[in-house]
């Protein structure tokens, strides 16, 4: 059964791979962008690009989130599957981290996901069906030097998903967390090559993953086959975080 899916930050990286995987299986897929990436290029606001419907949205702004959902609802119908993927890093050691660097990352990664989940829940409750998937990180539970802000935001998503599970589980709404390890995207391309080599050594699989390897897990979590899975944290990290 085709569903309406919204992927935040779906114009590039992991979000784009997730959006394309849903589109490939025949779902109606909207992705948010902020003017860049494959969906944003030249697009002032909303519009179809291939099999995806792009809509402008900044997850740090509740009004922007609300407007994006409204546009998607008008174009594709109520959002049945939310993938809260938009995320940023702003790494630096604790002693140097400003309060703005801490709250800025939290505002996008954690509060941004909350804004989207809250907005999505209204229509999911009415439909008595919904899937929320939060893209966290191995770093949320493993920690990362220089990533107090990022790790806190990603760990917070676990509490969000588990609380939503307790609140809305009885309404046939599931909320799960996917925790990728190191994936080849713009985010990890920023890392110096020595750090990338160190990480590769620590990963049992011995390599970074492709965005598609995350996408398959996300589409599966949204499927009917995964209807009894909620509040779970699913690692896609080549074994890096074993024991979480
Ligand atoms: P990218 O940096 O390639 O893409 C980040 C996406 O988030 C972009 O689409 C970006 O939009 C969007 N975004 C950032 N801030 C906002 C905002 N305020 N409002 C709306 N959209 C925003 O990252 P990845 O694809 O690598 O990461 C995707 C998710 O996966 C993130 O949550 C990240 O933390 C997580 N992750 C990534 C890992 C990795 O190794 N790459 C590992 C574990 C988790 P725009 O193009 O407009 O900037």
From TrEMBL:
Residue numbers binding NADP(+): 9-12, 85, 150-154, 183
CDD domains: BKR_SDR_c
Entry-linked SUPFAM superfamilies: NAD(P)-binding Rossmann-fold domains
Gene Ontology biological process: fatty acid biosynthetic process
Keywords noted in UniProt: Fatty acid biosynthesis, Fatty acid metabolism, Lipid biosynthesis, Lipid metabolism, NADP, Oxidoreductase
GO-annotated molecular function: 3-oxoacyl-[acyl-carrier-protein] reductase (NADPH) activity; NAD binding
Lipid biosynthesis in keyword set: yes
Pathway: Lipid metabolism; fatty acid biosynthesis
Every Ketoreductase domain range: 3-186
Location of the active site: 150 (proton acceptor)
EC number of this enzyme: 1.1.1.100
Catalytic activity of the protein: a (3R)-hydroxyacyl-[ACP] + NADP(+) = a 3-oxoacyl-[ACP] + NADPH + H(+)
InterPro entries named among the record's database cross-references: 3oxo_ACP_reduc, KR_dom, NAD(P)-bd_dom_sf, SDR, SDR_fam
Gene3D superfamilies, sorted: NAD(P)-binding Rossmann-like Domain (3.40.50.720)
Role description: Catalyzes the NADPH-dependent reduction of beta-ketoacyl-ACP substrates to beta-hydroxyacyl-ACP products, the first reductive step in the elongation cycle of fatty acid biosynthesis.
PANTHER family (UniProt xref): 3-OXOACYL-(ACYL-CARRIER-PROTEIN) REDUCTASE, 3-OXOACYL-[ACYL-CARRIER-PROTEIN] REDUCTASE FABG
Family note: Belongs to the short-chain dehydrogenases/reductases (SDR) family.
Assembly and oligomerization: Homotetramer.
Protein name as annotated: 3-oxoacyl-[acyl-carrier-protein] reductase
